[in-house]
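Journal club side-thread
Mid-discussion, someone asked how the predicted structure for our own chain would compare to the paper's figures. Pasting it here so we can look after the session.
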Amino acid sequence: MGRMYASLLSNAGWKKIYVCDIPSKYNHLCLEYANTPGVLVCPDGHAVSRASDFIIYSVEAEHIDKAVKEYGPSTKHCAIVAGQTSVKAPEQAAFENYLPEDTHIVSCHSLHGPTVSPIDQPLVLIRHRGPPEALTLVESILRCFRSRYVYMSYRDHDLVTANTQAVTHAAFLSMGSAWASARWYPWEHGLYVGGIETAKVNLTLRIYSNAWHVYAGLAILNPSARVQIDQYAKSATELFKLMLAGGNGTDEDKRAFRQRVEWGRQIVFGDRVLSDSEKAKRRPILLSEDVLDRFSLGKAPQVDSSHTRGAQDIKFNGYDERHSRSGRPSPATNSTAYAPESGSSNNDPPPVTISPRTPSTVPPTRYRPNSHLSLLAMVDSWAHLKINPYTHLALAATPLFRLFLGVAEHLFMSPNLLQASTHSALHDTWHRGDDLEFVIAARGWSQCVNFESFEVYRKRFQETRMFFEARFEEASKVGSAMIKALMETEIEREKGKEDSEKD
């Protein structure tokens, strides 16, 4: 992010942008910025601190205390100091402990990665210590980013980032670890291809193509994030157990799983399930599945529309598969309609009860149904934690959170899709092995975070990263294009919303 900031400020015409890295990288940095207008490379943080009126520490949260302790005392008289850490509690403590009393603290945090355009993205500004004029100056300096300012306190920042990023990161990290443990790229086998699977695959690869410390700081140093990651693993485990019990059990067991999913939908999405006419008025977050298919790394399978009770004809890369990977016939695509119990509480998971079921046919889909356990667990964990994801959507949502919320919204607000997902979760066996790997991965990441060890986190992240490394170049281009398309439609959606409110 430091490089992104330096580049944007240089392009805006600032004449003296002092930069530094660790001393061993000084010569390399000099070569890198030799022809960049306005960028002046310094040997260390002391030189930057003595010369600058506005100083940004673009340092990992793990190392912010050490960096400010070393260079903070050299801060220029009445300078403004900010930090780009993803977790602000350690940054706040370091600034208060080591910066001179005359220093103003007006911190910032761009809620997106360095490869995403900052235009219209949220940029958090935190005036912690200093006069209003200090905040005004920071606003003027960063105005060239064309980002959208969001004003918060240090405490609010950490709560909002936990609510918008912790569970999202846990989901993608777990999916990646599961695929790496299984030693296969699912999109190359035609199984998880097309529609919302496109977003899940691209965003998982995007996370693993970034540096591990981008996610480690939030997960380990933010107490709220640790609680949420633990709940995500718990939700995934409990849902998987209910899937197994329902698939091999009684009608009551199947009912228990469906009720748990419906409970989460009611808590998180409530009455947001819209009719076709209402959908026409309100644009959803997610791009259409047809648009998402343009960004798929794999080729979508051909699904035979003549659904029968005993088998489902699906061609994967020319292979006619009438059986799952476990060798069992594919289940029926007919499923049972589910209606939530009247009078049930919205505050706790519903009790297990039996009620009459009405047969209903799910319309054919060109995408092979699966359990979508990662999405079911995400919504379930939000429900247990009483998190309303829409609260922070317009305020401070990252592109990743916005897109994954859109994926969940698309599944849970489409009765046919959700019904196909729960039916597949209970009756299909071809994805059971993948779901098991996912649960193990989710629990593993939760344990890793609870160890509070950056080294353990780094090793776990890097092992998975190595498995996908050969695919990063293609995935990065496709993922960036997908996010760009999403953000363009989001800007249009927000403008349309404002116009309708005016009318």
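Post-session note: The longest strand covers residues 122-129.
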